[in-house]
Specification:
The protein is an alpha/beta fold. It has 2 domains: about 25-185, 2-Layer Sandwich (Alpha-Beta Plaits), CATH 3.30.70; about 190-430, TIM Barrel, CATH 3.20.20. Helix content is about 40%, strand content about 20%.
Length: about 450
């Protein structure tokens, strides 16, 4: 056993004589790392050759584990776990690879098989195998129930860890029903009625932040020029109880009213930076827009950003923080103080939600923003206002004189695209061009 005070060692000693902490999971983490490395290689091969039948990842969860632990204790529970593992192993095919990730769950990769694989049939057979016959625990025969979550390898899933997390979250959700169930994870947009009331939504946001159970989505911006840089806007999305993605516009008002917006934005900042540094480290031309407010930048967040940029200096100009024009109008001192500190780190600044009243406003001159994003309804409003369009063209020309780029979001039809290109707009965006996805295409 290693004896030191370094995190990750098997035994760590306290300052008082005889005080120690033994890490029973040190070897587990090492095995998990090897499993993730192997699984990651399989995922990379799929991404390189998407025409091959895809692998999938699964999580098998024992729903009654806590009840059994409380009734039988840890020693007898080990017998149950051994029997479960034997049954799982008997239900695997060639090149399937599973790992016991915790006392109540196994995670693994399912190979596609010779002629593809019917995952529904596999899950049904596995649940039958796991639940019949009953298990012998000491002098007792007990029955149990299981949940299986599954996620196919898919370009909508960024990497192997995200695929496994999706499968685990599905199994966790199903486990509360205390019955044998199976479900495949499908990224999608949740309908409004899944959220419930404002209190339910606020609680879901809190729980999601605490458990890090959110998903990043990316939407590309179309540029009129031939510049090398590629721009994407990022948002966090909640995951509903059914595993569907909840769009930001469905919960941001609730987050703002419950003082949770800053935490959501901090989460988005940190995950965007992680994506730029770890996932797309070679894509130096990639730029990510992140919606922010002064509340997102606590002193601890600022210190974390300074340390991160000192270690990864190339990341700061690839992150574009967008402050709504509202903050320049109504929280001027906080906003200017925040933007100045971000600018000193090399972070690019933008102003968003610019309405018609801002087109000739002086507030946009107060912050050295490189990007000016119009309000989401601007494209539709301007379509019906010829006089306003002339004013808009003058705004675009003024922006260009000050080395600023103009963005028009929520473009919905081809004629709008043509009109805005002719007006000199630099970037346009909207579901008409491309809907948000949970991953950026490799090679971008």
């Amino acid at each position: 056993m290693t004896a030191s005070n370094k995190p990750g060692d098997t035994v760590r000693f306290g300052s008082q004589p005889g005080a120690r902490l033994v890490d029973a999971f040190a070897s587990t983490r090492r095995v998990r790392d090897r499993f993730l490395y192997y699984a990651g290689k399989r995922y990379e091969k799929f991404i390189q050759n998407p025409h091959q039948p895809p692998h999938g990842v699964a999580c098998i969860r024992l729903n009654n584990w806590q009840e059994f632990r409380d009734r039988f204790g840890f020693r007898l529970l080990e017998d149950l776990e051994d029997q479960i593992e034997e049954r799982v192993l008997a239900g695997l095919e060639e090149r399937d690879f599973f790992l016991k990730d915790s006392e109540n769950s196994l995670i693994g990769i399912l190979a596609p098989g010779q002629d593809g694989r019917d995952v529904d049939q596999w899950a049904k057979a596995m649940l039958d195998r796991l639940t019949d016959p009953a298990y012998q625990i000491g002098a007792h025969q007990i029955t149990s129930n299981f949940s299986i979550g599954f996620c196919w390898f898919d370009r909508r899933v960024r990497d192997i860890e995200e695929a496994l997390l999706d499968a685990v979250q599905i199994a966790d959700q199903l486990s509360s029903s205390a019955s044998n169930q199976f479900r495949v994870f499908v990224p999608d947009i949740a309908p409004d009625d899944e959220l419930g009331g404002a209190e339910d939504t606020a609680e879901l946001i809190r729980q999601s932040l605490q458990a890090n159970r959110l998903r990043m989505v990316f939407q590309p911006l179309l540029t009129a020029s031939s510049e090398e840089n590629r721009f994407y806007q990022t948002w966090p999305r909640l995951i509903s109880g059914s595993g569907r993605l909840i769009a930001a516009h469905q919960f941001l008002k609730v987050a703002r009213r419950n003082d949770l917006l800053g935490e959501l934005q901090t989460w988005a900042i940190k995950h965007s930076l992680h994506y730029l540094i770890k996932v797309q480290s070679d894509a130096s031309h990639l730029r990510l827009f992140v919606n922010v407010s002064p509340e997102a930048f606590s002193e601890s967040t600022m210190s974390w950003l300074e340390k991160t940029f000192s270690r990864y200096p190339d990341a700061s100009p690839r992150l574009i923080t967008e402050f709504e024009a509202f903050y320049l109008e109504h929280q001027t001192s906080d906003t200017l103080r925040t933007t100045e500190r971000l600018r000193s780190m090399g972070v690019i600044l933008g102003v968003s939600n610019i309405t018609k009243k801002h087109l000739q406003s002086q507030i946009l001159d107060d912050v050295p923003a490189r990007f000016l994003r119009l309000a989401s309804n601007f494209a539709q409003t301007l379509n019906r206002d010829e006089e306003g369009f002339d004013e808009f063209i003058a705004f675009v020309k003024s922006a260009h004189l000050h080395q600023r780029k103009v963005i028009v979001p929520d473009v919905r039809e081809e004629q709008q695209v043509i009109n805005f290109w002719q007006a000199g707009v630099d970037l346009i965006q909207g579901d008409y061009i491309e809907k948000p996805t949970t991953a950026i295409e490799p090679g971008v």
